[in-house]
Amino acid sequence: MKEKLYDPVFTKEEIQSKLKEKHHLIPYNRFYWWRRYKHSNNNLSKYKPLLQRIQNGDFDMPPYFYDAMISENDIQEKWENSRNHDEFINDAKTDMERKRRLLEDHEKFEREQLHNLQRAFQSYFGISKDEFYLEVDKFDGTLEELYHHIENEYGRPISTRSIPELVMRIINGK
Predict the structure, then answer these.
(1) Helix residue ranges per DSSP H, the chain
(2) 67 by DSSP, 3-state: which?
(3) pLDDT band, very low/low/confident/very high, at 38 (cuts 50, 70, 90)
(4) Residue 57 has what DSSP assignment?
(5) CA nearest 120: which of 51, 32, 174?
(6) What total of structural domains would you count in the chain?
(7) What is the gyration radius of the CA atoms in the chain, in angstroms?
(8) What span, in angstroms and rounded, lies between the C-alpha atoms of 64 and 36?
(9) Is the model more confident about 8 or about 162?
(10) Residue in 109, 5, 115, 112 with CA at minimum distance from that of residue 67
């Protein structure tokens, strides 16, 4: 019996069932051939309240990481079924490239999502970048719970405050 090339944490079926909760398979696209899944819902406008956007899943992570795990399972399967190294390389090179591109997409999208989330909280609650990252670092919970925590910590969203409240907040340095 061959050594394992990868030791996947989840089976392909477990990953696919998890992906089907919030994502759906997409048809082949020659420009993004490595992607197999996408979010099932459309993002709301940036002018919608932040809580609605969070509940809609606008800041949820895309399926790229899980899709890369499926590719990892496919590579492991091809490794186990190959007779020699050359056969394995020929069979698995597309899956290896798919995994590499999916992980790149995941990292890029994760950075963008965190930046978008930070800007949304800044504009919605009037908090600084440092205040946002301080709250994120010390908070352990869901995104919706973070929203309510920041709302309790820093007050109501800017759009629902009156001008005197904003002036007093600036004067008091809070």
Answers:
(1) 12-22, 50-56, 64-81, 85-125, 129-138, 143-154, 163-172
(2) helix
(3) confident
(4) T
(5) 51
(6) 1
(7) 22
(8) 8
(9) 8
(10) 109
